[in-house]
Amino acid sequence: MNRCFFIVLLLWMLAPLARAQTPATVYPGAAWEKADATESGWSAQKLADARRYFDGLAEASIFVVEHGRVVVEWGEPAKRVKVSSVRKSLLSALYGIHVRAGRLDLTKTLAQLGIDDQPPLTAFEKTATLRMVLQARSGVYHAYVGGLLADREAMPPRGSHAPGSFWYYNNWDFNVLGTVFEQQLHLKIATEFRDRIAAPLQMQDFRLEDMHYFGGTTQTAAVEQSIHPAYHFSLTARDMARFGYLFLRGGAWKGQQLIPGDWVTESTTSYSDTGGGGGYGYLWWVNGFPEVSAPNYSARGALGKYIIVVPERDLVVVYQNHTEFPDDAAAYSLDQLQRLPNVSKEQMGGLLKRILEAQPTSAGQGPRR
């Protein structure tokens, strides 16, 4: 038999087997499909270790999706909780839709967009572009609504860094992005999130009233002098997992491209060194869990709200501390806030490490569209 013919015949015979060993892409319908973790090859012993670690943290929920099926579901994944700064990654996704459609221009400056504040911005600050604001590199260190008093004390002085030259995790940037979105598009964030993301993903729990604005209080007005409100979301862990899974699938959902694929890549690429091996994209954290070697990106919120995507493991991990961070945190003393149950990034890294160790190594087949 001709050797080349034999090789072709062998490959033809093995092809169905190779296809059978690669799990088909699965999307949830009205509810998530569940898989038995141990039957899927997960280590029962290591999962038990992860469960013990989880039980030692604050009261919370965790929801783990592998290959589109739920393999871990602890706590109350149907409980609505304010997700704090996870809101920023949700807005980033909406930006991607409208930027790629030509309705938002990342090269426009704050001056061109008509953005100011009270007290006013300087002409120098207004040279920051929309892209710089998305990257938390605006160089605008103005008072803002929300966050800790300690964060304001650590903020660089106004005018100390040229726009685009320095990364600083800055709630002024994040709040202004909400203002720009609504003023430029004449659309509401909650409505767009419902229509563009929640409805197509068949989120089980999201309602329009699950998003609200916070513009400060009279008690905190002295330190929250800004006209730009914060926009806050309350979500369930199982709906947060749908959002993470959308990004794992490159913005595609059941044959429909909801978020442009190149935006998913661009927004989860690091443009700044945040320390500890981590970086920051467009309102997404990139890597930053030293306990985890697999590349990942995450949305993170105060006190322990996480959506973590691990592409090479085809995995989404959602962790949701049930304690909500107060909107009016600036009215609280540091001691009061420190008494709130918290799950730090380091603790989340420890739990994530245990989850990954329990997953079968053969699971690392990368994301499938």
List keywords for this structure.
single chain; 369 residues; alpha+beta; Beta-lactamase; eight-stranded antiparallel β-sheet; three-stranded antiparallel β-sheet; 11 helices; 33% helix
Structure overview:
The protein is an alpha+beta fold and 369 residues long. The protein has one domain (44-363): DD-peptidase/beta-lactamase superfamily (Beta-lactamase), CATH 3.40.710.10. It is 33% helix and 15% strand. The chain contains 11 helices and 13 strands. The strands form 3 sheets. Strands 2-1-13-12-11-10-9-8 form an 8-stranded antiparallel β-sheet. A 3-stranded antiparallel β-sheet has the order 3-5-4. Helix 2 runs antiparallel to helix 11. The longest helix is centred in the N-terminal third of the chain and has 19 residues, at 3-21. It is globular, with a radius of gyration of 22 Å.
> What is the CATH level 1 assignment?
Alpha Beta
Strand tally is 13
- Strand coverage percent: 15-25%
CATH superfamily: DD-peptidase/beta-lactamase superfamily
Structurally, the number of domains stands at: 1
Cα Rg:
22 Å
Would you identify the regions where 5 or more consecutive residues have pLDDT less than 50? 7-11, 13-22
Sheet with the most strands: spatial strand order: 2-1-13-12-11-10-9-8
Largest sheet: 8 strands, antiparallel
The rounded distance between the terminal residues' Cα atoms is: 39 Å
Put simply, the count of helices is 11
CATH architecture: 3-Layer(aba) Sandwich
Order of helices and strands: HHEEEHHHHHEEHEEHEEEEEEHH
In the CATH hierarchy, the third-tier topology is known as Beta-lactamase
| Main structural class | alpha+beta
Given the C-alpha coordinates, what overall shape results? globular
Question: Residue share in helices?
Answer: 25-40%
Mean pLDDT comes to: 92
